[in-house]
Amino acid sequence: MAEKDTELMKGEIIVKDPSKLRLKPNLQDYNGLRKSFKWADAEKMVDWFPGGKINAAYNVLDRHAKGKNADKLALIYDDGAGTVKKYTFKQLNDEANKFANVLKKLGVKRQDRVFVFLQRTVECYASFLGAIKYGAIASPMFPAFGPDAIKDRLLDSSAVVLVTDPELKKRFYQVKNDLPDLKHLIVVGEDNPPAGELSYSKEMATASKEFETVPMDPEEFMFMLYTSGTTGKPKGVVHAHKGIVQQTLTTRWVLDVHDDDIYWCTADIGWVTGVVYGVLGPWSNGITQIGLGGRFDPETWYKTIQNYKITVWYTAPTAVRMLMAKGDELPAKYDLSSLRALYSVGEPLNPEGVKWALEVFDSKPFHDTWWQTETGSILITNFPEMPIKPGSMGKPLPGVEAAIVDENGDVLPQGEEGSLVLKPGWPSMMRQIWKNPAKYNEYMRNDWYYTGDTAQIDKDGYFWYVGRADDVIKTSGERVGPFEVESALIEHPAVAEAGVIGKPDQLRGNIIKAFIVLTPGHTESDELKVEIQKFVKTRLAGHAYPREIDVVKTLPKTRSGKIMRRLLRARELGLPIGDTSTLED
Ligand code: PRX
Predict the structure, then answer these.
(1) How many structural domains compose the chain?
(2) 491 and 557 within one domain
(3) I need a labelling partner for 553 at 20 to 30 A (CA). Which of 94, 159, 301, 535 fits?
(4) Using a 6 Å cutoff on CB, does residue 367 contact ligand 1?
(5) Residue 463 Cβ < 6 Å to ligand 1
């Protein structure tokens, strides 16, 4: 494996000529910085209140709204259907202040959970940041979530406020009775709300735009995001205000933003990339961002780059593959010359994708970046000043220690495959799994944080992703837990048992595949499968349904009754079946 990779690298390394780069990268001398860097240096990139207090949203909005960036555009929001709205840092700060005042009027307490379930609109940004300013814990939810996914999150976190819209609130109402802690439902676009609801616009109309952003202890919580693991329901990953230090730093060093950039992160704010690099990092650096509503569409995307003269673009491998699949004639119709730097995250980026970009985007390669919901910001990455080895995730951020270890936690030599681990303690690391210390502790072993990924390091210190060490599925870059899908499947009356795996797919990285046992009285048919797919889509989430379903007579289980997904996967993919000593019969 190591030998093969070394060959690949020799032939195909992308070396950048500093004299040809349009701007000098913010990070210079990576090797020197790895030795000299201290987190205390990064702490100087953000503003602090007296007594060592901080508020991430102060750094994202107030410091610009009160300074030289006050009238600079923070957001150009294009709804994808012809309406464009523009907000300066001052205007966006005013909106967030008003929302913080709404929370104050409602008597929301410090560190209460405020959930935002909205499309990517200005109200979504304002309520998310307003909640953080106020000292609440903000939590965005992906608009494709169905009632089950909403209930899991609001219930586990004992959420107090939900901000949503007339369309999305219908899903909330299906589970409302199971959520006794939720006190306030604020609806955007509902001017005459029925009893039990508040109108966002009415509340905002009477709220003051003056608000003193609350100084927080750096360890107090800023936002939480639910994410999937192998077992159980989604877990609430909780991030502290101090994370803004590293979120600011990585946006500057990795995404390499400069003052005049027009930056576009394509991720929805319901995912960590959308939160950290679609809200926090870029605005903390005072950068103008494009927000695009609507669905993925290659033509619209190229048009967006052309029309807004995007310079820095952060997207995901599935999107890159979908653009590639559309062919090279389409991008040739657009002027994409504004682009300076391209980045990708969420799943492995094939070397072909990196090289395709060189052809289509005037010699600009994609820079692959690696991180997780739990890590709170980019930790391993390709830096603008550094040569790229297509297919590699790059190198650790200065200040971050990453290694490959064996089962005992012993560091493996270069070229050997093992668990990707990190030395805990970087500023944006998750602070807890909500109400679940045992789950948090599962990440920590042998003084390492276990990422759940397997990888290897080459002789030049570049990291190469191998796969997941667990059953977590990455489909179109989105993280799905097999247990959630299985739980949704068995709610359908025709499904007695279900086992769910990720099946490799050229376009989506993986698709979700389900093996189901039918309840007596049901027979297999295409109609039934479609109905089951629709059922999961509407209950759980638009992206988390099985694209393939096989009906089977039995599922392989351990003697304790656990479905052996590993075996299902091995059978499906024709892999060695491995140890079956725990198999039932
Ligand atoms: O398996 C890795 C994969 O995505 C997982 C984290 O998923 P999530 O928490 O949803 O965060 C995604 C966006 C930050 C990782 O454990 N992953 C992330 N980036 C890469 C990747 N796999 C391969 N290459 C990457 N660059």
Answers:
(1) 2
(2) yes
(3) 535
(4) no
(5) no
